Amino acid sequence: MKKTIFVVALSIAGFISVWRFEPGPVQHTAAVAQAPPPVTAPSTSAAPPSTSAAPPASAPTSTAPSTSDTPDTPDATATTQGTAESSRYGTVQVQVTFTGTRFTAITLLQAPDSGRSLTALPRLQEEAMKAQSADIDTVTGATETSESYKTSLQAAIDARGKR
Known about the structure:
By secondary structure, the protein is α+β, with helices and mostly antiparallel strands. The protein is 33% helix and 18% strand. The protein has three helices and five strands. Helix 2 runs parallel beside helix 3.
């Protein structure tokens, strides 16, 4: 009987400790993998430089999700930005680099810097690269961040399709 009371008391103390646990900032975290910006080679064509004051045709003219390059060839590279999606845990915004119709890189432009987002964002990035779409599962414990990531990613994909 004495052992039973002791075991029950320790079990309750352990349960309370687990119940009140709140994760803090992670001290030793790996940085979210981000691809370097694509490097474009200077033009080698013999065309004379333009003296027009008009902006180039490929310059974005709004603050909506933007695109760069206008490739129609299968091996051409294009980069689009998704919308900045806010939640109570922070803002998420992605940039997607495409080669043809495939993602070659997903770069985080904005990301929360604490909480479960630190481990969720690399997992979401990996899943999106595998799926080649925004139709990926949310990460348990980081649902709002996952939804923000998926929404921004879908906006970048949609921006690619609107060109």
